[in-house]
Amino acid sequence: MDMTGKTILITGSTDGVGRYVAARLAAEGAHVLIHGRDAARAQSLIEEIVRGGHAAPVFYQADLSSLAGARQLADAVRADHDKLDVFVSNAGIGSRSMGSGERRESADGFELRFAVNYLAGFLLAYLLLPLLKAAAPSRIVNVASLGQQPIDFDDVMITKNYSGGRAYAQSKLAQIMFTIDLAAELKESGVTVNALHPATYMNTTMVRDGGITPISTVEQGGEAILHLIEGDDVAGRSGLFFNGLQEARANPQAYDRAARERLRALSRKLTGL
Fold first, then answer.
1. For residues 196 and 144, is the Cβ–Cβ distance under 8 A?
2. Helices in the chain by DSSP H: which ranges?
3. What number of other Cβ atoms are within 10 A of residue 39's Cβ?
4. CB 124 within 8 A of CB 74
5. Which class for 148: exposed (0-12), middle (13-18), buried (19 or more C-beta within 10 A)?
6. Selected catalytic residue, list 60, 126, 168, 255
7. Which of 79, 261, 268, 272 sits between 20 and 30 A of 48, alpha carbons compared?
């Protein structure tokens, strides 16, 4: 798909793989909307893109650890644009980010990784759907992970036996379950939604903060994300999970209709949709 003139929102795009993808798309002529919490990081990316001779991306500052922050971001994008060709839900925190792996809660009282990695993207997708439908054929790309943990619906917020790894993996499976669910809901709308594991332990701040030695490059992960954003071979295909560039199978719970229905009902209740 030709990216020239396409409007693309990428959350978590002032650092790591999101930053790489934003710079690549800007170089391809896209109108890139970047998001992050740190204005200085955003400014350095804007300057880097402009130095390369490309149009400056537009920065939207928002903290997705609160539902209010997600709504603020959606409101700002909707105020500025009437169409959105691609929404990349990339913002997230790792198993040890923002607190060395201990259990923390979001501003709304939800387990932090579930809130940031999953609920924020869930809410944003629905709030931005009118713009995506207006631009159809359009795409949603959810950046998930191979690290997946089935959701215990009796303790979704993991108040017992907590670990950062478990919380991270649960949030990523929730993203994939949502991907499959939303794809079915959007059938015939012209909006596709797919999820992927970009690459294993990329050289990003999230990985390094977790005390993990990177084994993949940001460029490898970025190419996998770009494939779902612009690849002709995935045009019109929806509800899929990819491991890098290859279609793959997620945790079995992702294909459990009853589990997805429970997650959908819970997510709508928690976000007020």
1. yes
2. 16-27, 39-51, 67-80, 112-113, 120-134, 164-185, 205-209, 218-230, 257-271
3. 11
4. yes
5. buried
6. 168
7. 79
What residue type is assigned to position 211 of the chain?
G
Position 87 in a domain? yes
Tell me the CATH number at 63: 3.40.50.720
Per the annotation, the verdict on 168 as an active-site residue is: yes
Chain centre to alpha carbon of residue 19:
13
Prediction pTM value: 0.94
pLDDT digits (tens, 9 = 90+) for 99-144: 556 899 999 999 999 999 999 999 999 999 999 999 999 999 999 9
Collapsing DSSP states into helix, strand and coil, what is residue 241? strand
Pairwise CA distance, residues 173 & 150, whole Å:
7
Buried b (16+ CB within 10 A) or exposed e, 126-137: bbbbebbeebee
In this structure, what are the phi and psi dihedrals at residue 52, rounded to the nearest 5 degrees?
-80, 0
pLDDT in tens, 203-256: 666 656 666 676 678 999 999 999 999 999 999 999 999 999 999 999 999 999
**CB-CB contact of 154 with 209 (8 Å):** no
The tally of domains found in the chain comes to 1
Give the pLDDT of residue 216. Answer: 77
Residue 186 lies in a domain: yes
2 inside domain:
no
Quote the CA–CA distance of 172 and 38 in Å, as a whole number: 24
Those residues whose C-beta lies under 8 Å from the C-beta of residue 51, and which sit 6 or more positions away, are none
**Tokens representing residue 67 in the block:** 């539902």
